[in-house]
Design brief:
By secondary structure, the chain is α+β, with helices and mostly antiparallel strands. It contains 4 helices and 10 strands, in the order H-H-E-E-E-E-E-H-E-H-E-E-E-E. About 30% of the residues are buried.
Length: about 180
């Protein structure tokens, strides 16, 4: 490898370039829920993904210094409420940096005492238990097994793309899938 090619491969994109490129990726919007000061708390996140169907495993990436990251690290549990397009105000509220994100009036009444508060009217909710934690730059990535799924309800998902919120318009009918990963 020549010095010029070594320099080219070791150079990193700037944070501004990276952020601009990532606006091209559409992401589902979720509210990661936990308990803070014994109350339901939720933070809007697009850095969420399914890892495996067997066992059901997800990951979420949170700023390491956030209230949510600290609460999840302390309890080793969290919830994920998948937001519908009707929940734009909830998404915006949960995305304000440094603002209180208490959800008392927004969670399902039966879930108020649980470790993983479920957002009322969410498309689906996952109760998760942390199985691994990875520190990456200024974020903490929590890997978790899903222990309970609150059944999905009908509706359109809320998406984030190009620094704005939107919704999904299917181009073709949904097809049946097996548990196999679509990348297999």
């Amino acid at each position: 490898m020549t010095p010029a090619s070594a320099a080219a491969t070791s150079a990193e994109a700037s944070a501004v370039e990276y952020a601009a490129a990532m606006t091209a990726l559409a992401s589902g919007v979720v509210l990661v829920t936990c308990r803070h000061a014994e109350r339901p708390w939720g933070m809007t996140v697009t850095a969420f993904a399914s890892v495996s169907a067997d066992p059901p495993t997800v990951l979420v990436s949170l700023g390491s210094g956030t209230t949510s990251a600290r609460a999840i690290a302390a309890t080793s549990s969290f919830g994920v409420s998948i937001l519908s397009r009707e929940q734009l105000e909830v998404a915006e509220r949960g995305a304000v940096p440094g603002a209180p994100k208490f959800l008392d009036a927004l969670v399902e009444p039966a879930d108020r005492p649980s470790a993983s508060p479920a957002l009322a009217q969410a498309l689906a909710h996952l109760d998760c238990e942390v199985v691994d934690v990875v520190d990456a730059a200024d974020h903490t990535v929590f890997f978790a097994h899903v222990h309970r799924v609150r059944r999905p309800r009908g509706g359109d998902p809320l998406l984030y793309h190009g620094r704005g919120y939107g919704s999904f318009v299917p181009l073709a009918p949904t097809t049946e899938r097996t548990l196999r990963c679509i990348s297999s």
